[in-house]
Amino acid sequence: MYEISVLKQNLQSKLPGKKSQYKMAPSDRAVRDQALNISDLRKSAVLIILFNKNNNLHVLLTQRASYKGPHGGQISFPGGKFEEHKDQNLQSTAIRETYEEIALGRDDYEILAPLSPLFIPISKISVQPFVAFSTNILKAKPDGYELVDLYKVPISILQDPINIKKNILNDLEYPYYDFKGKKIWGATAMMISELLDVL
Predict the structure, then answer these.
(1) Residues 18, 152, 69, 98: is their CA dihedral positive or negative?
(2) Of 117, 111, 135, 118, whose CA–CA distance to 52 is shortest?
(3) Residues 12-37: tens digit of each pLDDT
(4) Which residues contact 94 (CB under 8 A, 6 or more apart)?
(5) Cα separation of 63 and 182, whole Å?
(6) For 4-198, CATH number?
(7) Cα separation, 176 vs 109, whole angstroms
(8) Helices (DSSP H) in 35-183: which residue ranges?
(9) Where are the domains of the chain?
(10) CA pair distance 19, 115, nearest whole angstrom
(11) Cα–Cα distance measured from residue 198 to residue 14, given in angstroms and rounded to the nearest whole number
């Protein structure tokens, strides 16, 4: 069983940031980041919820509903856009969106610390991830509107190099984590990469 005190301690150290994120980034990511105007990005936040199951550390991932847009149908973390009239800060955004999407309230987990922010060029969003630990994960359920499924993924699967694969599209490499045939890629994979290095 993973001791959450170890994770808390690791999160207090200097975060690896882009060095870790870029391990799972598309091959043109560094070039696209250079062209970003950070002042134009909208703010958002997600919650990376960890929990112990069968004496092993797991992370909770969600499956977004299919829709016309860059992130439709993707596997992601619960979260969403900052709303000024609802949220005091980005942590409030992560808490609110998590409850709306998977029915886990503030009493169902402990927020440990933030990871490094991540910029998403295609949707012009800046994402702030927060790491949390839950002992009440059985309450989690998808809302059926924004989300269609939940996945409880062992950290050990994400750490195993055999499950890191690549797609080639238009001469670009897109790395992803393979979880039972599901592709975890893009911003979610980049955040997981930093989390794994912290762990």
Answers:
(1) negative
(2) 135
(3) 889 999 999 999 998 877 766 666 66
(4) 45, 46, 47, 78, 79, 111, 128, 130
(5) 10
(6) 3.90.79.10
(7) 28
(8) 90-102, 155-159
(9) 4-198
(10) 13
(11) 9
Q: Which residue has the tokens 């909770």?
A: 60
Residue appearing with tokens 């991932």: 61
Mean pLDDT within 84-97 = 97
Place of tokens 């950290």: 155
Asked if residue 48 lies in contact with residue 191, where contact means CB atoms within 8 angstroms, the answer is yes
Question: What mean pLDDT, rounded, does the chain reach?
Answer: 90
Rounded distance between C-alpha atoms, residue 72 and residue 85, angstroms: 26
* Beta strands 42-53 and 56-64, pairing class: antiparallel
CB neighbour list of residue 15: distance below 8 Å, 6 or more residues apart: 115, 116, 194, 198
Residue indicated by tokens 């897109």: 174
- N residues, the chain: 199
